[in-house]
Amino acid sequence: MDFSVHSLHTFEFELSVELKTVLNIANVPSTTGLNQNSLMKLYKNDLTEIVLRLVKVYEKSLNICKSAAVKIDQLKSDQIENQKKLMELQDKQIDSVQQTVKTELKTWADVAKQGVTSKPITKHTVKEAVRSVNDEEKRSRCLLIYGVEEKDNEIPCVIAQNVYRKLNFNPPKIVDSYRVGRKTPGKLRPIKVELKHPTDAMVLLKNAGKLRSTDMSSVYLSPDRNKQQQAAHSKLVAEMRTMIKEDPNKFYFIRNNKVNFIDKK
Fold first, then answer.
1. CA angle, residues 227, 230, 233, in degrees to nearest 5
2. Helix (H) or strand (E) holding 260
3. Of 8, 123, 186, 246, which residue is the least packed, with the fewest Cβ within 10 Å?
């Protein structure tokens, strides 16, 4: 038997019915009156029926306990797998932040080796490095939603939640959300969404392609890129457009900072 909360509630109801039946057979108002003296007064057939009913309840209770144990083991395995995936995502995020720190800050040992004195480490350079790291961390929690029709009384947070539901995700904690850029007739401004955790943004971006099979097929998600990343991405988009013109019989996409393609089926 497959364990579920419904099966547990069903058994609880059946158990209460069996208990009332046993009390009626024993001719006692409650379980407090069910003792050796009351049972000794019963006829053999009535006592046999009570025992058989209790055995039936015991067997069903045992089956439910076994199925519950199987379900718990399954949930524990799923939890361990989810924790593993979460740790992998967190490790990637930590690596990204560490790489940013390495890029922005030079150790005194490196400065001494290179004999560089023109750029001494000052409070300003440290503040700039920390600011860059903080900016990178914040961007890792953000994403952009493109292709959503803009309305005067819209609530960006609600729009974002609807998009997430289309991906079959419970809407994560949203810190802030708003349209980006100046409002221009005929142009849809993207919605920038800041989430509470970087892993939420990573998971949503990883599954963004599923929107193509929904009624939001014209909507797509993008990471929050800095200016250098935007320039590099624009270059890849231009390269991909050129490749599409040269050979439209393939399906092109950008992944791992390069243009990839597969044959159209």
1. 155
2. strand 258-263
3. 186
